[in-house]
Amino acid sequence: MRTIDWVDGAVELIDQTVLPDQLTVLRITTVADLIAAIQSLAVRGAPALGVAGAFGVAVAAREFAGDPDGLARAVRAVEVARPTAVNLARGVRRAAARLDDGFEAVLAEACAVRDEEIAASEAMAMRGADLLTELCGERPRVLTHCNTGGLATVVGGTALAVVFELHRRGALAGVIASETRPLLQGARLTGWELARAGIDFRVAVDSAGPFLLARGEADAVILGADRICANGDVVNKVGSYSHALGAQRAGVPFLVVAPESTVDPDTPDGAAVEIEDRGAAEVTPYSAAVNPAFDITPHDLVTAIITDRRIVRLDRGEKL
Question: What is the pTM of this model?
Fold first, then answer.
């Protein structure tokens, strides 16, 4: 099933905040409700956010027909609903470029964004599985972080699509999924997707990742990205940087799987990216807290970036 789609005049999306206990589909017909879904993480994952942004312009075009000022404000509100993942703003701008051509043109562009992400997942799965077996042997054991499956895209996924493809080939020896604090996207969402696919896995507390790598319990780290900067710095769910350090120390590949839509040549490096802070309430009601949603993995810790179009071996000095 698709994580997000346009169905009978509305956006329909799986509410990721209630998984794995409930499989609930939200039907969204207003910009306010779409922004709420984005900010509450009912829909999340860079490619899925790009699709949500594009569909959001279609929702706005219908809701604010005949009100150009209201339409402009609504489109801008969707674009900035979350600041870190480049796909959201990119999807909005792409669909908004068709506003002068009318609602049907906007919707067609949004559907094209959706279809391209579906195709990208298939391509990344093949490229990533081939590279993993090349680097790690015929049956690698992988450690992954956050959620990078169909829930983060439309179907398939990014890094988790590679895991699914290895499983289909009979070439997967094991999966460790970090729980991913503070909202447990790994334990709740990745665990749900792996279980549905019939893949055996273990959930590990986030801080255990580098130790498990040091103990030889995984042959590679494979994860996604919310933005890949021009120099190869990778912005991803907080905790990714520590896994990269652990992988370097253990001498295992650190692989980033993301579509070309997540590569941002206009952002020179990680220092130029606004890192979203989710606030203390998600962590603790008892004290002040620091709660960055993402961190930045320097490009020199990344073995390779795998997109739907290419493999860039940063460990060999290749450039994006």
Answer: 0.96
Assess contact for 173 and 133: CB atoms under 8 A. Answer: no
Q: Give the total number of structural domains in the chain.
A: 2
Instruction: State the catalytic residue, choosing from 226, 233, 264, 308.
Output: 226
Residues in the chain predicted with pLDDT less than 70, given as ranges, are: none
Q: Is 226 an annotated catalytic residue?
A: yes
Looking at residue 296, what is its pLDDT? 98
CA–CA separation, 11 and 146 (whole Å):
25
Give the domain extent around 244: 124-316
